[in-house]
């Protein structure tokens, strides 16, 4: 029972990261109808930059801020320079271009930093402390919950309470009408990509210290898990992404805890297959998105 | 009929989609506080005309002047700042947003932003449905919402594409009455595209008949309504 | 084009293709002759590279048919290659009979492809891409979960008999790989010329119209996936023969992405494009390697090729108006232009 509780909290912490990353996927999907297959690679790139800054200055937090800001910039650049020019007549075009970006980013990272795992320190202890005699959570887990919770709250406020959020939603749903109403649709798209990439970078900074460390491919598996989470929630639904992320996090942690860590990726694959074949539109999506 | 005080002046406008133009050398003008009806058969180019005026389609040739400003090169998203609001064909309500959000969107560019009370007073039906999503509205409500949203931008020129589409005669005449009121009260200029010729001409000052992308006739509204030959030839009644 | 017009053109094309019936066969025979001659003139290392091109050609040819002619994008073909490679390794360990082993590898991969294809037929665009990507990522996890069989990251060695007579091993490898490649190309060339090819294109262009015209959409899609999986399985088995070992590291996600790049650059849906792609998959890393060696940088090795592939892929995609769609059937486009 203690182990179950421990795994549950661990799973929620992992799930929070998946939720953030899935949220980033959903943001771009809603804005541009593109699943950003390059998001994992983009997040790794900013994590590398963040950790470089951290080790050069000795301040983890400076590196953290640089990584998130780097995500904003990278997202905007990717949209402005590349994605804006993708032909949208087939959804495959966006996927293939994103894959090209993956190759470029991983290649450049490898050229600069090499292909060995680099240690990535966590800002807080990862040793779980005890509550009432049961080992539950580490300080780092609390940091994860806090950071992801803050992102969810901020994004919710942005989209429901601010005019910029209203503009972004309108631009995504009805670009032509929005332009007639004076909404700078292109700018909103860039902003959406920037925000999504920053959220992805945050997820990267939260997950990399818990895994083997920095590596150009460090986020490949996380991408699959988060993609599964996003599909589970319905690609259109931010709420679904968060719930989906937590579900996938719990599932993976239970599987790793009881069956072995090697089995976890297969569990994701099986979950993804089951979701795609039984509820292709996800649990929370209203729109019919599968064929989009 | 054109004079120096015209708000919108279109000269020799040629435009369309790709190689072959749909509109050929269209010349027209709309004065402040005037309603000009654009009539014509399906496919005559009415929607294309409005889309070109608001910048959604590029101008192949000709000139569009709005209050002394050349509109060529003005981006679509800037038109509303100059005072042009376009209610597209098929209403263009953002169905995923609520009524209130749709209306707010209309006035977003204005600083400082003004409350929407005035719009809700004009359309009490909308006030009751503030928090309904666009796709929960009836056709008539959507049309009111689209017009209300355009008015929230406080335009000087309203480009209206078939506001009566799919509406009951009673609601159509309500909307026409509202347009007349607004013109009289605020000096709003309206370029009104309509299939419903009678009700359009009932409020318009002037009517323009488009045929195959060219202006076939341009008359005072009452004259046009009385011109049986024109009506038979182009308007089918 | 309306359906009627489309059917009319296909009928016309079919008449024409009857005259061209022997073109693929002739091409393959000439190709075989050229390869055999080459193997006697090239040094061993070049022969090894030539063999690798042949092994790649199997999978790129199958993938270009799947993506180019049927519109399904698979990022999981690296995993299918791994399936073929591991099957052969396990078989050779016990029986050491190469030809039946390769056949078995193809059969097993075909079955695996059938399973994925059944799921794939119900998915579109990014959903299918995501699922197949997951398949590609999951390979190392499978090999370490069942490490009694697959020996996790170390992988397995592939037992091979020495080549018959006094032929150098590289030359023998070229023959084996290119025999597989040319048979694959021949098979696919005739397959896409027939009714199946027409069905695949119809499904790709407009599923509803295809359905109305009596084409079994799901059946065609599953079949297309199965065929390209079989090609991937053969390719994987040939790679096992080439490397004489298999390990998850030989079939990373990057491999699957490289395959996509190869077919896009070569011209989607064309078998000659698959050949160009396979050539580039061997040539570009080799060039990058020598640049890296000249620069004396370890970091450049491999990564230069990666970056280069990525840049080419992005540039090609952005430069081609219409993206992937415009790359399908350049032959037909040329013909239409000629008529105007
Ligand atoms: N997106 C488009 N691309 C190409 N041609 C178009 C497009 N939209 C309209 N057209 C063509 O332009 C011409 C004029 O169309 P337009 O929509 O302006 O007609 P309309 O007068 O508004 O007709 P209706 O009364 O049916 O709304 C038609 O011949 C139409 O086929
Ligand atoms: Mg129209």
TrEMBL record, chain A:
Keywords noted in UniProt: Amino-acid transport, Cell membrane, Membrane, Transmembrane, Transmembrane helix, Transport
Q: What is its main location?
A: membrane
Where found, per UniProt?
A: Cell membrane
Known CDD domains for this protein? TM_PBP1_LivH_like
Its topology with respect to the membrane? Multi-pass membrane protein
Identify the InterPro entries for this entry: ABC_transp_permease (IPR001851), BCAA_transport_permease (IPR052157)
Transmembrane intervals: 12-29, 36-54, 60-82, 94-114, 142-159, 180-208, 263-280
Entry-linked PANTHER family: ABC TRANSPORTER PERMEASE PROTEIN, BRANCHED-CHAIN AMINO ACID TRANSPORT SYSTEM PERMEASE PROTEIN LIVH
> What family does this belong to?
Belongs to the binding-protein-dependent transport system permease family. LivHM subfamily.
Name of protein:
Branched-chain amino acid ABC transporter permease
Species source reads Paractinoplanes globisporus
Q: What is the lineage of its organism?
A: Bacteria, Bacillati, Actinomycetota, Actinomycetes, Micromonosporales
TrEMBL record, chain B:
The terms under GO molecular function for this entry are:
ATP binding
> Could you tell me the keywords of this UniProt record?
Amino-acid transport, ATP-binding, Nucleotide-binding, Transport
Question: Ranges for the ABC transporter domain?
Answer: 8-237
Name the PROSITE patterns on file: ABC_TRANSPORTER_1, ABC_TRANSPORTER_2
Q: Where are the transmembrane segments?
A: none
Family annotation (InterPro entries): AAA+_ATPase, ABC_transporter-like_ATP-bd, ABC_transporter-like_CS, BCAA_Transport_ATP-bd_LivF, P-loop_NTPase
Reply yes or no: does the keyword Plastid apply. Answer: no
One short Pfam family name for this protein?
Answer: ABC_tran
**Family to which the UniProt record says this protein belongs:** Belongs to the ABC transporter superfamily.
Q: What is this protein called?
A: ABC transporter ATP-binding protein
Q: Which organism is it from?
A: Paractinoplanes globisporus
Lineage from the top down? Bacteria, Bacillati, Actinomycetota, Actinomycetes, Micromonosporales
From TrEMBL, chain C:
What CDD domains has UniProt attached to this entry?
A: TM_PBP1_LivM_like (cd06581)
TM region(s), chain numbering: 22-42, 48-66, 73-91, 97-120, 127-146, 172-192, 222-243, 249-268, 275-292, 304-327
Keywords per UniProt:
Cell membrane, Membrane, Transmembrane, Transmembrane helix
What name does UniProt use for this protein?
A: Branched-chain amino acid ABC transporter permease
How does this protein lie in the membrane? Multi-pass membrane protein
Q: Where this protein primarily resides, as one coarse class?
A: membrane
Q: Where in the cell is it found?
A: Cell membrane
């Amino acid at each position: 029972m203690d182990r179950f509780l421990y795994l549950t909290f661990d799973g929620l912490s992992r799930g929070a990261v998946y939720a953030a990353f899935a949220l980033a996927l959903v943001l771009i999907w809603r804005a541009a109808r593109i699943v950003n297959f390059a998001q994992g690679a983009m997040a790794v790139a900013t994590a590398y930059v963040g950790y470089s800054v951290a080790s050069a200055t000795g301040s983890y937090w400076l590196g953290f801020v640089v990584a998130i800001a780097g995500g904003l910039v990278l997202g905007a650049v990717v949209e402005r320079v590349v994605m804006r020019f993708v032909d949208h007549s087939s959804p495959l075009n966006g996927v293939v271009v994103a894959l090209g970006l993956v190759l470029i980013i991983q290649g450049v990272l490898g050229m600069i930093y090499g292909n060995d795992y680099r240690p990535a320190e966590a800002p807080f202890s990862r040793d779980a402390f005890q509550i009432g005699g049961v080992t539950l959570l580490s300080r780092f887990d609390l940091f994860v919950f806090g950071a992801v919770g803050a992102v969810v709250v901020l994004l919710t406020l942005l989209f429901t309470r601010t005019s910029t959020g209203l503009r972004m939603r309108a631009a995504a749903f009805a670009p032509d009408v929005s332009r007639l109403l004076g909404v700078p649709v292109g700018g909103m798209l860039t902003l959406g990509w920037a925000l999504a990439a920053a959220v992805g970078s945050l997820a990267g900074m939260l997950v990399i210290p818990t895994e083997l460390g920095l590596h150009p491919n460090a986020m490949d598996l996380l991408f699959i898990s988060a993609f599964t989470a996003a599909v589970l929630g319905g690609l259109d639904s931010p709420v679904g992404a968060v719930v989906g992320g937590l579900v996938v996090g719990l599932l993976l942690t239970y599987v790793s805890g009881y069956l072995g860590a090697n089995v976890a990726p297969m569990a994701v694959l099986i979950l993804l297959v089951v979701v795609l074949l039984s509820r292709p539109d996800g649990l929370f999506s209203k729109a019919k998105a599968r064929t989009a | 009929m054109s004079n120096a005080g015209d708000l919108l002046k279109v000269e020799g406008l040629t435009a369309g989609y790709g190689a072959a133009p749909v509109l050929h050398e269209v010349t027209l003008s709309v004065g402040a506080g005037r309603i000009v009806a654009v009539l014509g058969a399906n496919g005559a180019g009415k929607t294309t005309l409005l889309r070109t005026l608001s910048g959604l389609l590029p101008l192949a040739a000709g000139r569009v002047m709005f209050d002394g400003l050349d509109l060529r090169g003005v981006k679509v998203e800037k038109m509303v700042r100059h005072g042009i609001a376009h209610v597209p064909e098929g209403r263009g309500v953002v169905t995923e947003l609520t009524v209130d959000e749709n209306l707010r969107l209309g006035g977003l560019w204005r600083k400082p932003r003004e409350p929407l009370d005035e719009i809700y007073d004009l359309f009490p039906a909308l006030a009751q449905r503030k928090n309904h999503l666009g796709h929960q509205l009836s056709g008539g409500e959507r049309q009111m919402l689209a017009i209300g949203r355009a008015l929230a931008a406080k335009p000087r020129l309203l480009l209206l594409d078939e506001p009566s589409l799919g509406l009951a005669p009673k609601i159509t005449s309500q909307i026409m009455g509202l347009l007349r009121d607004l013109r009289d009260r605020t000096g709003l200029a309206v370029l009104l595209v309509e299939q419903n010729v009678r009700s359009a001409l009932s409020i318009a000052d002037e009517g323009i008949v488009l045929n195959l992308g060219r202006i076939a006739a341009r008359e005072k509204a009452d004259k046009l309504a009385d011109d049986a030959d024109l009506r038979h030839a182009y308007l089918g009644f | 084009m309306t359906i009627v017009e489309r059917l009319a053109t296909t009928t016309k094309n079919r008449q024409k293709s009857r005259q061209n019936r022997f073109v693929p066969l002739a091409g393959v025979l000439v190709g075989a002759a050229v390869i055999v001659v080459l193997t006697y003139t090239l040094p061993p290392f070049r022969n090894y590279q030539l063999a690798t091109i042949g092994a790649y050609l199997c999978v790129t040819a199958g993938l270009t048919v799947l993506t180019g002619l049927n519109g399904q994008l698979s990022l999981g073909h690296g995993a299918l290659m791994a399936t073929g490679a591991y099957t052969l390794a396990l078989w050779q360990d016990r029986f050491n009979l190469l030809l039946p082993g390769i056949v078995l590898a193809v059969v097993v991969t075909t079955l695996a492809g059938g399973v994925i294809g059944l799921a794939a037929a119900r998915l579109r665009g990014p959903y299918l891409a995501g699922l197949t990507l997951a398949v590609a990522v999951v390979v190392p996890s499978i090999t370490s979960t069942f490490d009694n069989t697959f020996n996790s990251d170390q992988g397995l060695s592939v037992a091979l008999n020495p080549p018959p007579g006094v032929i150098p091993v590289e030359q023998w490898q070229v023959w084996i790989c290119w025999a597989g490649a040319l048979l694959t190309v021949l098979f696919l060339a005739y397959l896409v010329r027939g009714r199946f090819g027409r069905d695949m294109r119809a499904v790709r262009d407009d599923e509803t119209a295809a359905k109305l015209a009596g084409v079994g959409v799901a059946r065609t899609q599953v079949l297309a996936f199965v065929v390209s999986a079989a090609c991937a399985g053969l390719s994987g088995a040939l790679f096992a023969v080439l490397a004489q070992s298999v390990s998850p590291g030989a079939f990373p996600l990057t491999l699957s992405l490289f395959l996509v790049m190869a077919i896009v650059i070569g011209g989607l849906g064309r078998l000659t494009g698959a050949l160009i792609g396979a050539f580039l998959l061997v040539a570009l890393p080799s060039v990058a390697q020598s640049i890296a060696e000249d620069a004396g940088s370890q970091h450049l090795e491999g990564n230069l090729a990666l970056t280069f592939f990525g840049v080419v892929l992005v540039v090609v995609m952005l430069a081609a108006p219409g993206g992937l769609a415009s790359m399908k059937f350049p032959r037909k486009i040329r013909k239409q232009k000629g008529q105007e």
